[in-house]
């Protein structure tokens, strides 16, 4: 199947109770810059031109649980971040304010939670 003409994924939107705070976390983590900030939406652009991240206010936000159990708020998505040095990247994530998840499913991956509770993975190439 060929892709539809003119379609290009540009941004992944992430719900948050405080989009500016979450955007600043990812700005520090990834080294990207905030390119647009509005009261309820903040945008980060990939400096290499890839897919960007947007953080939008969700007034009824419920923090996900990972791994989720019966009745828990499940994550709807997570970011996969490739790293060259897992220990160095983990130390950087800690310094940025991420929390190491209690459950780690693989030796070459570190699952972290951002300040809003969204899981993200640092994985060794």
TrEMBL record:
Domain VOC: start-end pairs: 8-125
CDD domains: VOC
Alphabetized SUPFAM superfamilies for the sequence: Glyoxalase/Bleomycin resistance protein/Dihydroxybiphenyl dioxygenase
PROSITE patterns: VOC
PANTHER family: CONSERVED PROTEIN (PTHR35908:SF1), HYPOTHETICAL FUSION PROTEIN (PTHR35908)
Protein name: VOC family protein
């Amino acid at each position: 199947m060929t892709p539809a003409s003119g379609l290009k994924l540009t941004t992944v939107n992430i719900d948050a109770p405080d989009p500016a705070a979450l955007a600043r976390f990812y700005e520090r983590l990834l080294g990207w810059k905030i390119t647009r900030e509005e009261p309820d939406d903040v945008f980060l652009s990939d400096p290499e031109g890839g897919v960007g991240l947007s953080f939008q206010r969700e007034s009824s936000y419920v923090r996900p649980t990972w791994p989720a159990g019966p009745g828990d708020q499940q994550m709807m998505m997570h970011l996969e971040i490739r790293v060259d040095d897992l220990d160095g990247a983990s130390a950087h994530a800690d310094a940025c304010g991420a929390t190491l998840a209690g459950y780690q499913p693989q030796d070459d991956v570190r699952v972290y939670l951002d300040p809003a509770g969204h899981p993200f993975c640092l994985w060794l190439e």
